[in-house]
């Protein structure tokens, strides 16, 4: 207790704050890199004027609340006031569209990754660059705004991401970590910077518009893991800690996206490793040994925080519909007068029940599309459950099909990598809400990807812990020590995880389900077209 207290007073700690889709979390880690205090704030995006968005007011309210709760946690546990920190890192959901004028004013409301409104821009840029540019990438949003003839575009002075915005306001530095930057614009893995040829192609494409800006001049500078990304300014300190106790001058690591922090938190930044994050959305990433043979619409290419090429399959929908069904069971339990039925208990009971279902879910079919799903070509979604009269409709199969479909779009994309491109992966590390109920989500995931899945005991803090580790790496690394070595030898050495190999029966059952899933997409299309 005294050691931790002294670490806090002397600033031998690091802080990571991540802005996720539904929660902002702050985690302070000690000298041994384990969390010593945390605080979180729940928030939700709004759908305003056909745009998924968060207000800047909500961004700062959430950051300040999570920081305040973490600082109060320290005060309660250790009896000290937090005044300094060894280093700080910020992370957030990637991509989206945040553009500012010369007076640093936001030009249009923040457009998040969740918006599927940039199809034309995505298609045209993919063709121009011969490189897949997903709809949610920042460059796709910018070009779509140009195609739409939106007046604000001519006033752009700076474009960044949510993590980049927060970092800028706290440090005055317009920078991004390379992993986060790779979700704005394609990266050249040789120069570890934006692809110069593609920047030139883009400028030529929009030359007739006579904008006052060139693309390179409005994007943040790219930094690698371990590089210093500025320090907390006096104004930034007051913005982060409304009590005024936190002192300025604290170094910041480069801001990273939730993809990069997920890789760090699961020790999957080395080649032939991968990780899968399954929560509101789901994405899987595999660090490649070589480039893919061709461009795939379903596969995004991003980088690790050190700049290695990563194939990423990202799907907008994962657990939202599953959670909605569990809430129905909670309502039923309460209506029956059953007391002490917690959500944890419900998840545990229902998920475990899924293990007793038929391997292929008994002929049931579900789609978990709360929003659009680009991998299966849906611009909008309608959650859907359907069965034939002779399907084996029971509780086990019902829960099982909703677990399977949470990974249906993901498997569609991963099959391209694992089956078509023959990408090798030794192990996938799982994190996120789907894995919270021990063993169940892990077993289903192993069946979906037909590869071993490991869940680490100490990855529970997720991305906030991951960005705190990147901040720690920046100030604690030895000369020439790579991030791979730092994580393997100093963070994860001797740490145990639960590894689960795929069950051949489950693998076969999942493949059978996927045939039904693919054939039934026309049902989902009819729902989107007819339920307006």
Automatic annotation (TrEMBL):
Domain Carbohydrate kinase FGGY N-terminal span(s) in chain numbering: 14-257
The protein's name: Xylulokinase
Q: Which residues form the Carbohydrate kinase FGGY C-terminal domain?
A: 275-474
Which Pfam families does UniProt cross-reference here? FGGY_C, FGGY_N
- Family stated for the protein in its record: Belongs to the FGGY kinase family.
MF terms in GO:
D-xylulokinase activity
Q: Which CDD domains match?
A: ASKHA_NBD_FGGY_BaXK-like (cd07809)
Q: What is its EC number?
A: 2.7.1.17
- Which InterPro entries does the annotation name? ATPase_NBD, FGGY_C, FGGY_Carb_Kinase, FGGY_N
Keyword Kinase tagged: yes
Question: Which key words are in the record?
Answer: Kinase, Transferase
Q: What class of enzyme is it?
A: transferase
Keyword Transferase listed? The answer is yes
């Amino acid at each position: 207790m005294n050691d931790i207290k002294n670490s806090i007073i002397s600033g031998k700690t690091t802080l990571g704050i991540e802005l996720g889709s539904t929660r902002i979390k702050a985690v302070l880690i000690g000298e041994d890199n384990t969390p010593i205090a945390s605080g979180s704030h729940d928030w939700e995006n709004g759908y305003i004027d056909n745009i998924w968005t968060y207000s800047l007011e909500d961004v700062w309210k959430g950051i300040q609340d999570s920081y305040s709760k973490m600082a109060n946690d320290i005060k309660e546990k250790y009896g000290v006031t937090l005044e300094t920190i060894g280093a700080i890192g910020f992370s957030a959901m990637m991509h989206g569209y945040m553009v500012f004028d010369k007076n640093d004013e936001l030009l249009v409301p923040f457009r998040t990754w969740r918006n599927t409104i940039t199809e034309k821009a995505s298609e045209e840029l993919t063709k121009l660059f011969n490189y897949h540019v997903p709809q949610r990438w920042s460059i796709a949003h910018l070009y779509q705004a140009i195609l739409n003839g939106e007046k604000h575009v001519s006033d752009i002075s700076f474009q960044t991401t949510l993590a980049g915005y927060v970092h800028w306001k706290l440090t005055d530095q317009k920078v991004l970590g390379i992993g986060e930057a790779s979700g704005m614009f394609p990266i050249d893995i040789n120069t570890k910077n934006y692809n110069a040829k593609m920047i030139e192609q883009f400028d030529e494409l929009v030359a007739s518009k006579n904008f006052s800006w060139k693309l390179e001049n409005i994007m943040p500078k790219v930094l690698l893991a371990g590089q210093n990304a500025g320090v907390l300014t006096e104004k930034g300190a007051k913005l982060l800690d409304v009590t005024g106790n936190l002192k300025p001058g604290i170094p910041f690591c480069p801001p990273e996206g939730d993809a990069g922090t997920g890789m760090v938190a699961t020790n999957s930044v080395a080649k032939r490793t991968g990780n899968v994050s399954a929560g509101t959305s789901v994405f899987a990433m595999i660090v490649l040994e070589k480039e893919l043979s061709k461009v795939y619409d379903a596969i995004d290419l991003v980088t690790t925080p050190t700049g290695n090429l990563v194939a990423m399959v990202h799907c907008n929908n994962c657990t939202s519909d599953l959670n909605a069904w569990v809430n129905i069971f909670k309502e039923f339990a309460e209506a029956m007068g059953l007391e002490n039925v917690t959500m944890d208990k419900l998840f545990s009971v229902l998920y475990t029940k899924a293990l007793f279902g038929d391997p292929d879910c008994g002929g049931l079919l579900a789609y978990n599309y709360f929003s659009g799903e680009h991998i299966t070509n849906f611009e909008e979604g309608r959650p859907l459950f359907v069965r034939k009269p002779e399907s084996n409709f029971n509780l086990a199969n019902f829960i099982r099909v909703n677990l399977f479909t949470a990974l249906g779009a993901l498997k569609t994309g991963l099959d391209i990598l694992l089956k078509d491109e023959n990408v090798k992966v030794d192990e996938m590390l799982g994190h996120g809400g789907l894995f919270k109920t021990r063993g169940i989500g892990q077993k289903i995931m192993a069946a979906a990807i037909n590869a071993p899945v490991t869940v680490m005991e100490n990855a529970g803090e997720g991305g906030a812990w991951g960005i705190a580790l990147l901040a720690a790496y920046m100030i604690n690394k030895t000369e020439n020590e790579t991030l791979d070595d730092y994580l393997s030898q100093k963070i994860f050495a001797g740490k145990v995880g639960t590894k689960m190999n795929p069950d051949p029966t489950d693998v076969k059952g999942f493949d059978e389900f996927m045939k039904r899933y693919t054939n039934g997409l026309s049902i989902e299309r009819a729902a989107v077209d007819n339920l307006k």
